Amino acid sequence: MKLTLKIWRQPDDRTKGRFLTYQLDDVSPDMSFLETIDLLNQNLILAGAEPISFDHDCREGICGSCAMYINGRPHGSDNASTTCQLYMRSYQDGDTITIEPWRANAFPVIKDLMVDRSAFDRIIQSGGYISVNTGSEVDANTIPIAKDIADAAFADAMCIGCGACVAACKNSSAMLFVAAKVSHLALLPQGQPERQRRALNMVAQMDAEGFGSCSNTGTCAAVCPKEISLDTIAQLNREYRQARSKV
Question: Which CATH homologous superfamily contains domain 117-133+142-245?
Fold first, then answer.
């Protein structure tokens, strides 16, 4: 296939960026989207030009680092999928594809398609953990957990922190991310000792990082590659209200 790629190029967070257009030939329908950018970068390097900077790691839909807008949608057109799981058979010969980084004040551009998502790390550090001293290793099944609760906790724990929810939200809200991290620990017995403090601290850190407010439009859940439910935000609101009432 022959494709036209319009890609956002920005040297750093202090320099104004712009779209540059590249022509790419011999793209196989079996190539992943990231392999296509690899091919373009190979051509740029051979031509003595600066390659495109973009985040990637596992390329298996697990790490959440392949964050980019593709034709106006986080991670591209496929539902429940990350960018690295998108294949070029989703496009037609001659298509034009526009690629840009996440757009959120809390995710400043580092270079080209790379953004700084360390705000998520700081939210996790504020309370997304369990610090109970468990001692030596124990049998994983010593604490019985009802299947419906275990399933709900696992569904929320599927969040990979990619930031698609923030990128899709008109307010750049991180509520779905924070909700998933708070909810899955709140549902499990191991998460009870710090349950109230966790909700208060993580919401406070989210606000401190400059994320916007949630207005329940649902775009976050619509683009989430792990299909985290919008109901999770309702769970976070309940956790936060209960914690505030006991302060």
Answer: Alpha-helical ferredoxin (1.10.1060.10)
